[in-house]
Design goal:
single chain, alpha/beta, Rossmann fold, Hypothetical protein af1432, 6-stranded mixed beta sheet, elongated, disordered N terminus, disordered C terminus, binds fe (ii) ion
Length: about 375
């Protein structure tokens, strides 16, 4: 007779029965306070080729379930040490949800059986049991676990492939978009590097205010494409060396809407087209083209606007010198809550103070 609390492990792959490949070296935990049941089951399971761990104490069984993965668990419902089979079932579902859990009891009721299955038990055995029936139930349980593991592995492989393909497509899209943006900048030498600068700033700003990295691709696309609508602005206005008059400025303002119209029919850029449309809206509602206000403007559009203004102020133009970082900081302080979302303006000032943003030299020809 075994010691109490009993615990032992046996594994002698004798390979017998009708399902040798299922039982072969499968890890089966048997939990029962009746030493005779434990002996009978463990000897039978070892004959079938399983590695059998036997525990007569539910607390010890709970520790084992938390620390190891079993291929199947056979557990008595009623045990004398506080925990019962239903508790072990809950622990198994939490720590090892793909392990089939089979409850056993000598005091079966319909309510017990229904409750066990409702809680997630794989099956329910009445004691005394026929060992052939135990073998059949356990072989179905092991088969179920094998299928579930294969299914999970297949899903994980599929997810890895989809993720890899998505990254490749995003890289392809970003490269194409960068080419498009370079084409625009080739037309307007005074803004060369502007899209890339805005991209670098907007990503730093997004991280500074805690926007999740999962938005980086949309941020980069929006930053690269924000001025793409300037393709539709006449050279006489786009390339004018000097300040625009009111009429010219009204035409230039149309670039936000033109950009939206270019991008919105492309399904993968429909979200980005909104940010492009809104990248000249102001927190106080005095921006264009829609005059949106505060949180009506998408947070990414607000980031884009804040970053674009920084790059414009920090760059040298024919009609103006590059602003110093002190002057830019003062400008953002004055305009937080007016032109800019105050939280984003504060984040930009922090980046300047941390020397993460620097003035850039004009690359104008
Ligand atoms: Fe713009």
């Amino acid at each position: 007779m075994k010691l109490s609390p009993m615990s032992h492990s046996s594994c002698e792959p004798l390979l017998s029965g009708n399902h040798p490949d299922l039982f072969h070296r499968s890890q089966v935990l048997v939990v029962d306070d009746d030493p005779m049941i434990c002996d009978v089951l463990s000897q039978y399971l070892v004959q079938l080729g399983a590695c059998c761990e036997v525990v007569s104490n539910a607390i010890q069984a709970a520790d084992l379930i938390r620390s190891r993965q079993f291929d199947a668990i056979l557990s008595d419902i009623y045990m004398p040490d506080g925990l019962i089979g239903m508790d072990l079932l809950s622990i198994t579902l939490e720590h090892s949800p793909l392990t089939p859990f089979i409850l056993m009891t000598g005091r079966p009721t319909v309510d017990n059986a229904v409750e066990a299955i409702r809680m997630g038990a794989y099956d329910y055995l009445r004691k005394p049991f026929n060992l052939d029936y135990v073998e059949l139930t356990l072989s179905r349980a092991l088969h179920y676990r094998r299928l579930e593991l294969e299914n999970r592995s297949y899903q994980e492989e599929l997810e890895r492939k989809v993720e890899k393909r998505t990254r490749e497509l995003q890289g392809f899209l970003l490269n194409s978009v960068q080419s498009l943006s370079n084409a625009l900048e080739a037309r307007d030498p005074y803004t060369q590097g502007h899209a890339q600068n805005v991209t670098d700033i907007v990503v730093q700003l997004a991280h500074e205010i805690g926007i999740d990295e999962s938005h980086d691709v949309a941020l980069r696309l929006a930053a690269q494409l924000h001025d793409i609508g300037k393709i539709g602005i006449p050279d006489s206005i786009l390339l004018k060396a000097g300040k625009l008059n009111d009429e010219e400025y009204e035409i230039m303002k149309k670039h936000a809407e033109i950009g939206y119209r270019i991008l919105s029919p492309i399904p993968s850029l429909s979200e980005v087209s909104r940010y492009v449309y809104e990248h000249h809206e102001r927190w106080d509602g005095r921006g264009y083209p829609q005059g949106l206000k505060g949180e009506e403007i998408h947070p990414i559009s607000r980031l884009l606007m804040t970053a674009e203004v920084f790059d414009a102020l920090a760059a040298e133009r024919v009609y103006k010198k590059a602003w110093s970082l002190e002057k830019i900081t003062a400008y953002y302080r004055d305009n937080a809550g007016k032109a800019f979302d105050p939280e984003i303006a504060d984040a930009l000032i922090r980046l300047i103070e941390q020397k993460k943003l620097k003035p850039r030299h004009s690359t104008a020809a």
